[in-house]
């Protein structure tokens, strides 16, 4: 009997030590004491990483709240949300639940710190916020002086360099955490930033248990599509409808003796509308003289698509399946943001993709001079 009691005691001690090893505590504070009596929710993602679901509730007392639990499944992305409609703090605050003490300060600018991944993620977000603020200043400068082409080129280069800093920081964080849920989830939110080689590298390293998540499956499909439509590869045909409802295909225009510029766009896309005038001018210069443009629209409403074509003075052929971001035409080329231009040679080989309108038009001018 004594041996049995000792054995059970040892099991109890082991269970307690394991529990302590996996234990997490979230200690939260809020400013001013005005939030006392309200509730705070701890939320996690649902099984498909689409929606947030409540898993715990805490009351705010003397400007503080606390959550405790066990992080047995490794680091998991959670959210702390106030039960309040105030514009001061109406956004969920991302918190990585992992073993240790996590300190959360909820304010107009919220902070999370105390454990390794939270510290790393907080540093990434703060740096990204600072760089994004710098990018907004650069963009404003560009809007104020559109006539100075030399200045615009310099500002564009600076803007791209800043954006690349965010991308490289995000890539480093994801790579360090890609085997856990946090890294995989951040990848699913930022995959559009990465090259096809980076996507293939990162998705290959993801824990197999996350590969059933639709968001991860979409990334793998995007990487495959990008690889299949990379520069140097032959084009992938696209089939849809014209604005007047007739069947049309990209192959109707490729291999007919012209360079073909495939313009992925939508009438609802502000950056697309800003870039389109450059393409309109290029089509006036080179349309019928060695260049054809084919628009592939990610619109979801036929009338909006037609109105956009008319308002922007677009005269080149248009094709769409009117499926918005579920467009099979866009997914065939791994398109995750628009505008996106793909330039084909006279035989249908992809010469360039992902260039802005200005650089694409310059490339077309070079080709047609040869």
In short:
By secondary structure, this protein is of the alpha+beta class.
Overview of the structural elements:
- By secondary structure, the protein is of the alpha+beta class.
- It contains ten helices and 15 strands.
- The longest helix has 29 residues, at 116-144.
- The chain is elongated.
- Mean pLDDT is 90; it is low at 1-18.
- Helix fraction? 40-55%
Whole-Å distance between the termini?
A: 95 Å
Total helical segments: 10
On the 0 to 100 scale, the average pLDDT is 90
Contiguous runs where pLDDT drops below 50 for at least 5 residues: 1-18
Percent of residues in beta strands: 15-25%
Radius of gyration: 26 Å
For this entry, give a set of tags:
five-stranded mixed sheet, 370 residues, 10 helices, 15 strands, alpha+beta, Immunoglobulin-like, disordered N terminus
Give the topology, please.
Elements: H1 2-22, E1 23-29, E2 39-45, E3 52-59, E4 64-70, E5 76-82, E6 93-97, E7 100-105, E8 111-113, H2 116-144, H3 149-177, H4 181-190, H5 196-205, H6 214-228, E9 239-241, E10 247-249, E11 259-265, H7 270-286, E12 291-297, H8 302-311, E13 318-320, H9 328-331, E14 340-344, E15 350-353, H10 357-369
Parallel strand pairs: 1-7, 11-12, 12-13
Antiparallel strand pairs: 1-4, 2-3, 2-5, 5-6, 7-8, 9-10, 11-14, 14-15
Helix pairs in contact: 2-3, 3-4, 5-6, 7-10
